[in-house]
Amino acid sequence: MQKKTLLDGQKIQITIKRLCHQLIENHDDFANTVLIGIQPRGIFLADRIHQELETILKNKKILKGNLDITFFRDDFRRKDGLVTASSNSIDFIIEGKKVILIDDVLWTGRTIRAALDALLAYGRPEKVELLVLIDRRFSRHLPIEPDYIGHQVDSLNSQQVKVTWASEGAEDKVILLSESTDKNNK
């Protein structure tokens, strides 16, 4: 397995700050905007974005929630074994609000489609935008594009993008994993 580091520690922090400043440009004081992290992996990025925004905006209260999409996925019945859902953590109504959906990696678009369906249980938003740390271009199954992108990567379907976070006990890092084609590396 070959590993290529796409982002790590300081680069991730700079990317998060840039994304936050882009959000502030478009949403000003967040009076009518909420952040929603998509479970399981998007919540770590949503937490970091939320924390950075409150620091930049001098502890302004910004609403943030976590959305589980397990039973809205189009492939959940295809998995072997029992499917375990996470709990939703949205203690506000999104009716008429601007929603920023946050996920770590955008690949096929199916996770985002499921999130859009799940989101409707909390009301009808005025607008929905998508923020991702990594955009794997050229691999979409659905016509979904992010509004805010941390980093774009052109990758093969056989490759995997893995994001780890310090809050999980690892280090802040994004790596691209590829199968080794060299027989000596196997």
From TrEMBL:
UniProt-recorded name of the protein: Bifunctional pyr operon transcriptional regulator/uracil phosphoribosyltransferase PyrR
Coiled coil regions, renumbered to chain: none
Keyword Isomerase among UniProt keywords: no
UniProt entry keywords in alphabetical sequence: Glycosyltransferase, Transferase
Molecular functions (GO terms): uracil phosphoribosyltransferase activity
Species annotation: Pedobacter frigidisoli
Enzyme class, spelled out: transferase
The keyword Glycosyltransferase is assigned to this record: yes
Domain Phosphoribosyltransferase: 4-161
Enzyme Commission number(s) from the entry: 2.4.2.9
